[in-house]
Please model this.
Amino acid sequence: MNKTTRAAQEFISTAQAAKQLGLSLGAVQQMVESGTLEAWKTAGGHRRIRQASVDALLAGRSGAAPALEETLSDHLRVLIVDDHPALQQAYRETFSSWKLPLEIEQYDHPLDALVAVGRQPPNLLITDPHIHGMDGFDMIRRLRDNPLADDVAIVAVSTLSQQEIETAGGLPADVTIYGKPIPFHELHGYMQAMISRLRRLAARALRG
Model:
């Protein structure tokens, strides 16, 4: 097998990687720049991404249909994206004290969150749009452009005023915006309502 044939099997284009991961071209390009995906550039400047690194990100994704009990679970899957350690701890400790049926994942970088959503979309994503690395506003817009994330509810918790949010390009109309400090009382009610909805949907499905 010659080098050209071997490279064609080992490396794929940015567009192919984006399709496999369910992400935009821009997100994949930033993952390459950050080292999340292993790649090299051709003499013409085109990225070639190692298929094995894409496969590694997809390792948690199963092609099998989820079990009925998993589909109808009343556990609320919550993904939190915030790069401040103290706030990450505040989320963990407060949510644990509520004794609600929650499954929590936390990330401090938007790209990691996008990959996690591609693997298994949560029910709810909570983030601060003003975050390091890839702009949190951009992350939210990309999620809303991703068909896999159509049913993900998004809550933005920010110190920015409405005017500052608009100046930054705004947020999709269906994103719920709260100010800081983190409004845990409002989040508690919001999440209780989502859990009640999950339970109603599960009961309706079981009734046939």
About this structure: The radius of gyration is 19 Å. The longest strand covers residues 76-81. The first helix runs from residue 3 to 10.
